[in-house]
Amino acid sequence: MAPEQRGAQAGLGPANQSDKPGHECGVFGIVAPNADVARLTFFGLYALQHRGQESAGIAVSNGRGIRHHKEMGLVAQVFNEEKLRPLTGHLAIGHTRYSTTGSSRIENAQPFVVESALGPLAVGHNGNLTNAAALRRELLTRGVGLTSSSDSEVITQMLAGGEGRTWEEKLRVFMVRAQGAYCLTVLTREALFAVRDPLGLHPLCLGRIGADGWVVASESCALGTIGAEFVREVEPGEILAITEDGPRTVARMPAPRPAECLFEYIYFARPDSTLHGTALHAVRVAQGRELAREAPAPADVVISVPDSATPAAIGYAQESGIPYSEGLIKNRYIGRTFIQPDDQLRKVGISLKFNALSDNLAGKRVVLVDDSIVRGNTSGPIVRLLREAGAREVHVRVSSPPIRHPCFLGVDMATYPELIAHRLSIPEICAHLGADSLAYLSLEGLIRSTRRDPAAFCRGCFTGEYPVSIELVDKEVFELR
Q: Which of 25, 221, 407, 430 is catalytic?
């Protein structure tokens, strides 16, 4: 979505007022011979709506051809009974998009569907190729026409016209050529392929539905929504082929070490999803506990910036012994409308999104827990809102480290000039927010909360050290964001 549209849709005016990193995309795929796969895909995408609110699409194969439908908007805005009815078959993929590379227009909506020498092909993509611009130029030089600015179309055309006599061979060649982050659902006439990049930057899982159905999804929460059972995660570097005969690993091409995105653990994934066998709600509560140990505050009450920071606030309260209470009520529908606020409402700003509970705040010393601060322009108004509601002191605690560097791997994390922690020190940020104190969770504390090997993560947005060489990141890709 274009920056100005994102901000307006959230009711916050220009995009530079957002304190949150942009979500990624959600991908879903299903093989179920005796089920309404389009309807199941719809509900799977509904569960993944938090990963992208710009556009949605579904493609279905009946063994002979592929039908698809996609539009701009939320899943429930794009699909109804009339739109789902023609999508008949036994294999399907779905996609819900939040733009990283590529602007907000229908040409960039997914899945991308093309014809090829091997038959019809549909592709859904979550992530960002760091060498997309070079691959795009190569396709154009070969005479391949491109209709969008999305790296996902580049992937689709690389598969459709790439080397290889079979889809399996084409996918292997693609994985050798591609650099960066990608989770793919690839639909052909006869099969569904699930592909995860060698670094395993973003999640992708496999589930079983009924006696003979199989599902892949960005997050395990989508499996539960449709009554599917979690089986396992798609491994980094794995190509998984799924037909009516079940799943089969075509190739494993992992990197020497994984580089999972830490923001899946902090913010992106739903708290009821699991990563590596651990519920993310528990990980986020542990982040709050670590934060309370590292950065205690003299306070009467702990509150969160709802909803994403609530588990961390609960953990902070548990560890500190300070009572947890609701202090902010979120209008959950502000971000779900395409009607832009007028100038008068824009001046209200943060009050469009949050209301303060004065009875829980008046005269209190408050610990305000947030999961992240990117630009720093909504955190300040929230602090002022709490003071206007009667809070005597406001101590801001953040359950992630300062974000000092952009992301080149599929997260809309802003540019260097926009990142407040790149421009200002922590005391300067505290003064900018108007808080009585400010502290962030350390990177060590964040990783401890995951109970994973510290070497398993990408920490580029915190340290500037990326799992791919920064020289390989084509500047054109970043300028397209």
A: 25
